[in-house]
UniProtKB/TrEMBL annotation:
Residues 7-134 form the Prokaryotic-type class I peptide chain release factors domain. Residues 105-116, 124-136 have a biased composition (Basic residues). SUPFAM superfamilies: Release factor. GO terms for molecular function: peptidyl-tRNA hydrolase activity. The keyword Amino-acid biosynthesis does not apply. Its EC number is 3.1.1.29. Pfam families: RF-1. Residues 105-136 are annotated as: Disordered. It comes from the Bacteria. This is Peptidyl-tRNA hydrolase ArfB. The keyword Cytoplasm does not apply. It comes from Vibrio hippocampi.
Amino acid sequence: MLTISNTVTLQAWEIELTAIRAMGAGGQKVNKTSTAIHLRFDIKRSTLPQFYKERLLALTDSRITKEGVIIIKAQQFRTQEQNREDALERLKQLILTATVVQKARRATKPTKASQRRRVDAKKQRSQTKALRSRVK
C-alpha cells in the first residue's frame, strides 16, 4: 500500500512492479541479477479520486503513455529493495506534483513614477555614452 495523502492511498494490486536487469556498465554481478525495478501504474483503472486522474492525464510527461499508464524505471541503486522504494517514491511525487494548483497570474502595470525613473536612467546612460564619443 502506498500512502499519497491523509485521504488517498493506493492498494498493492494497482501497482505492478517487475524486476529487470539494470542497464549500464558491466561488472561481475550485473549480468545475472535483476536489481532494476519496472513500475507500471494504470491511472484509469486505479482507485484514485477523479480529480487526481484528470490532473495526471492532463500532464505532458514522457513517463505517461497515451493509454494513461505511468511507467517508471528505477535502477539507481544496487539492491532491488532500494530501487523498489525509489520507484514508489517517484510515483508518489509525480501524483503529488500533478495535484498542485498553480496560482492564477494577474497582469500588473508599472507605476508612473517607476516608468519615469526608468526613462531618466536611460537618458543618463545615453548621456554618459555620448560623452565618450570623439569631440567634433
